[in-house]
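Recap from last week: sequence in, structure out.
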Amino acid sequence: MNPTLSQWLHTRQTAILDNWPDRNEAITGNVVIQPRLETQRLVSALIATAEGNELPLRNLFSEWIAAEADVGLPVMVRNFQNLHRTVRATLIQDTSGLTLIDDLADLFDQAIATLVEIWTEHTGQLIHEREFIAASLDAASAAADQRALQLKALNDISQRLSATLDRDTLIEIVIDSLYRLTEAHHVALWLVDDKQRIRVVASRGSDDGPPVGFILPDSNPTVQAAFHKGVFWPAISADNMQEWMIAGCGLLIIPMIGGERLIGAVTLQELHNPLDLRFMQDLAQSIASQAAIALQNAELYHAIRTLNADLEQRVIERTRELEEEKDRLATLHAIAAQVNQTLDLDQILNNSLTMLARIVQAEHASILLTEEDNPSLLVTRAILGTKVSPDNTVRFAIGQGIAGWAAQHGQTVLVPDVAEDERWATIPGSSRKREGSMIAVPLFVQGEVIGVMTLSHSQTNFFYEGHVRLLNACAGAIAIGINNANLFRMISTEAERRYELLDRQQKETSQIAAILQSLLDGVIVCDLYGGVISINPAASRILHRPLEELLLWNLRDVIQRYLGSHAPELPLDDLLRRPLSVNGEARTFTTTAIVGGKTVNFSLSPVLKENDELLGALLVLRDITREVEADRMKNEFIGTMSHELRTPMTAIKGFTQLLAMGGLGQLNDTQREFVNTIYSNTERMINLINDVLEITKIESGSIDLEWRSLHLAEALSGVIAELQPQITQHRHQLTISIPPGLPLIRADAMRLHQILYHVLLNAVKYTPAGGSISIAAREVMNIDIPEPTRSTLSENRRYLLLSISDTGVGIRPEDLPRIFDRFFRGENSLKVEAGGTGLGLSIVKPLVELLGGRIWVESTVGIGSTFSIIMPIAGEHA
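Predicted structure tokens:
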């Protein structure tokens, strides 16, 4: 370590670097090799060496020698000496540094010694590397020679494997080649058999290895996996040791894979040097791969040869089948031609039997068909060579005998020997012997058995499957011919029947037309769309229109033109949509109108077939002018008589009241009782006369209605107030349920009061003392109204439903249809006590209908009755 020299070199570094290239060129002269040396870094490394740190200098020399190995050590030393001279010259010029000349010489001697040391180490390393490369080349040459020999052997094996497709030969080539080339202690070839078991098919070497035919146990999953993936075990562990493994041997297992399937494996066991198996692995793997391909090719070749032989056999069989099919088709064509030539059933059966018996050489043949009246019986319809007669006709129940069994099961029966068949049925009186063979073929039409065809021969086992196929093919054509003949006969019979029916229908139509033309009532018939299709002269006369014009009209136009505002009372569209009521009865609508000064009744009803299929609608027009006039005169007479009776009754009532009030003197009790009796009966007579007059007005249509929108609650309150004394007298419990917000109804106030009065009075009179009466109201639609009332109303209209229920004596079911008739009073326990004339409800019903509503009653004897009234809501249009 020389700090002074280090300091001097550091201060003179720039001058040294500037002088060195000139001196270097001057000294080297013609030297052409100039090593690439970093001067700046070299001077810095010398400064560090002077300070005692040789590492930078050693690193620089190592890099320099590695980069300039082709320059040589003398050139490097010479260049380093040039640097020494350059530094010394610079030192001599500096008088203050003359004392450092020896130190400088020591520094460069140290540096040159370091350079020589590093050069020596680098040269030794290069020599060692070249020796290693030479040894590697020798080893590679030997390996290449060995690989060439293996490739030659593999090429020979490949040629031998390609030269044959015999499986056993291939196995011998593989096992011999493996044993010869690997020289293993034991070699075995395993293949997967048909049951997916791995079995030894060939082995060489020690007798301790697995013998031919040995099956790999499936008890060890590790060994099983090794056969699928391959493994090298230098020493076999106790867990994996199996009986076929040789103790002390290393084991190499190489799987033979074909596609994605294991086809076998090769096992090599080596006793003396188990590690040699590792070097044999590539060779054995190559042989195993070629063997797998060769064995697959042999297997494929064997399969192709088997398939080819099978195809040849199939071609032979198919050729024979085609010949038989040709014969069947020819026979079928001949039978079809015979069948199509005629529609005579007997001719079809006899011709078919003759042809089939000749083809199959049958001695006996017959066809049995099912009876029309009893399809469960088979009857003889044709016999080969014999005409069918009552003597040779037989009947079998389906399921009886061989023919019956064929018909029951729908299967062709081939009986080689009828003597041994339990299904044989002996026919009483028949000379037919139970011997030989027989075929029974069922005849089908649209899946149903129509008969059975039987053919027999006295020789057993005479018929075979070819006959069965032929007869089955012909049975269809024969069955179609039989069916066509039956259809022809049925069509002919049906045509005759329909001709007679048509003739009778034409006569009936003529009679109906004559009756229709002679009717005094008008009749108009329309189709499903309302178009007029028929009209009689009476309708033309009543409507004052020619027939030709009315036939061009639609029935809707007729109704609208002649009824005007009353047209909704005959809802044609509703009738055509729903001709029947819920209980299945035809709906009928009626109304009355003035046509040409005459009163005509219009009645609309559906035209239905027997199965209730709608054909159209029927409008019947009846001139009821005379009936209306007679009824008017009757009503006038009753009205006049009622007025004449009411005048004296009023006088009697007035004088009776005067007497009862003591106007002519005080009355004793007997006289007062007589006067009260006269008064009550007079009052009863006046009420009766008023009711009769009311009915007369209703029937004559002379009632004037004052239409207005009314609150149902207000109308009810007036009626209840009027009847409250009687309700209190009978101790009835009255319940009223009217929800708020009910819509107004359109009605006449006085007539509505009259309706509610009579219905509620009826409930009071026929409910025993202490009973209950309830009144409820709600808004409903047409669909909520029960039949048959709903059928008489227009659809999509709102109504107010008022229900008056009581716990009275009830009405008998047989009395319900007459409850609204005049003077009718049902039999019950309160009939005498209630009194009355039986006119109240008869007034209610026409008044309700006059206001556009309906009334009906539901009752159970001993439980009570419910009267339901519906009234149209104000603002609703019919």
